[in-house]
Write a structure and sequence with these properties.
This protein is α/β, with parallel strands linked by helices. Helices cover 48% and strands 15% of the residues. The protein contains 18 helices and 12 strands. It has a 5-stranded mixed sheet with strand order 4-1-5-12-6. Keywords: Cell outer membrane, Membrane, Signal.
């Protein structure tokens, strides 16, 4: 009887033990797959998936959207690198450096494409790779005029320097202590003013000096040639791209690609586009005041402006601001022709391949684009007011204007009025506090260009009306 009972007991125990064993095996496999699908993703898995997921930050030197097109120096390098691997690029944007690293370690991206400072803190978790970029802080000052630019840090004593709180302010305080005091440091705590705003103020002569990283200073010098950025005030800081520790093959591929492509035409073109080529266009006014001609293209402006109900002189003012009536010009961003349409926009608006610099084709396409944009702002009842939004969108792209409208509404301003309302928020789109706001869908944007763009066109239009008969 006892033997029988023992056999029954063994049988009764077998099934639960078997089920536990199966569950353990299943759990192990599940954990294994979870790891494979998460962080354990190196070059082989990336190539198999056909996609490289790159993490970066919104900024004028890394990634932004301009006229509906992804742009930025780090973006272009990432695109070139992805192409060399034979995969597509997908960009994921973080809000700050800490989040950038956390997303990478969590497996939300394969690589950080941003000038990430190389520090001991993250050396156990990351492999730094790609180009070893050397950055340092510089004094931004005017480089021409009666006043000679400062050439030595000792000359900062007695000078007024305006900086944002953080690393620039901290460096100035340390430098001031090293020099025994005397630098007049002004901490700019206004959240709506960015470092790039301060650089603009230096260029315009509103403040004498500010401080910036040298790469940001170089980019802004392409907008303001009168700047001098030669005086360094900090030690060099190394920075580069980064991948997780479990992606050594990807790191090696990035190192190899950077080494082989530093002098390639594509790399050189990107470097020049963002940090060397001037983004200022020389302007000449009216073709012939005596003959009442704004440009050689007046007949085309008169012909096609009727289709959108514009005064032809407004269309001429837009063209002048865009291209200076030069049909061969190609902007730093790749926009072409008289009306400076981006290649994708030109194709969408029906410009035949190779005809981007044909003045009539350019104007016809611009008219189509303006008509489409007009429909996108149908919620603005006043036609004259809507014109401001159309012009702003022509410069910035629809998405950034929608973001500025959403911000205006959130902060109690009229989202259907441009001047002193929405235009103030397009300015704030270069400020991290605002472009990371949940109501913004398109990230960083250098809004001062659009702010000035609309005002300049309207001002020029008024001048044309006074000088040129309709």
């Amino acid at each position: 009887m006892k033997v029988k009972e023992l056999k029954l007991s063994a049988k009764s125990l077998f099934l639960p033990l078997f089920l536990i064993f199966v569950c353990c095996i299943s759990g192990c496999r599940k954990n294994h797959h979870s790891k494979e699908e998460g962080n354990d993703r190196d070059l082989t898995q990336i190539k198999d998936s056909g996609e490289l997921v790159v993490l970066t930050l919104y900024s004028s030197t890394s990634y932004f959207i301009y006229r509906g097109q992804e742009m930025g120096f780090q973006y272009e390098l990432s695109e070139q690198f992805a192409k060399s691997l034979g995969v597509k690029l997908r960009i994921e944007v973080a809000n700050n450096v800490h989040e950038l690293i956390q997303k990478l370690l969590a497996g939300e991206g394969d690589m950080i494409a941003y000038n990430l400072p190389i520090t001991k803190e993250w050396k156990d978790s990351l492999i730094y790779c790609g180009e070893d970029v050397i950055t340092h802080q510089v004094i931004v000052q005017q480089g021409n005029g009666k006043k000679k630019p400062l050439k030595d840090v000792t000359e900062l004593i007695g000078k007024n320097i305006y900086v944002k709180p953080g690393k620039y302010y901290d460096r100035l305080v340390n430098l001031n202590n090293e020099l025994g005091g005397g630098i007049l440091i002004h901490k700019v705590t206004n959240d709506s003013i960015t470092t790039e705003d301060l650089i603009t103020q230096v260029a315009q002569g509103k403040i004498p000096y500010t401080v910036s990283d040298n790469d940001l200073a170089k980019l802004n010098k392409t907008y303001y040639p009168n700047l001098n950025i030669n005086l360094s005030i900090s030690f060099d800081q190394r920075s580069s791209w980064a991948v997780r520790k479990d992606s050594p093959e990807l790191a090696a591929a990035a190192n190899k690609w950077h080494k082989e492509n530093m002098t390639s035409p594509a790399y050189t073109a990107s470097m020049k586009r963002y940090f060397e080529n001037s983004k200022m266009m020389p302007h000449s006014p009216i073709l012939s005041l005596k003959e009442g001609k704004i440009s050689h293209f007046d007949p085309l402006f008169k012909k096609y402006s009727k289709e959108i109900g514009w005064d032809w002189r407004m269309l001429a003012s837009l063209a002048y601001t865009e291209s200076n009536f030069d049909t061969t010009v190609v902007s730093w961003a790749g926009a072409k022709g008289l009306m400076q349409l981006m290649p994708a926009t030109a194709r969408a608006m029906g410009v035949p391949p190779g005809k981007e610099q044909n003045p009539e084709e350019s104007i016809k396409a611009a008219i189509k684009y303006i008509m489409a944009t007009d429909r996108s702002f149908s919620m603005i009842p006043d036609k004259q007011e809507r014109l401001n939004f159309i012009l702003a969108s022509y410069n910035a792209g629809l998405g950034h204007i929608y973001d500025a409208m959403a911000l205006a509404e959130k902060y109690g301003k009229n989202k259907l009025v441009w001047k002193d309302n929405v235009e103030n928020f397009i300015l704030l789109k270069s400020n991290e506090e605002y472009f990371t706001d949940p109501v913004c869908k398109n990230g960083y944007f250098r809004g001062i260009e659009t702010y000035n763009f609309v005002r300049n066109i309207m001002s020029r239009f008024e001048s044309y009306k006074k000088k040129i008969k309709s």
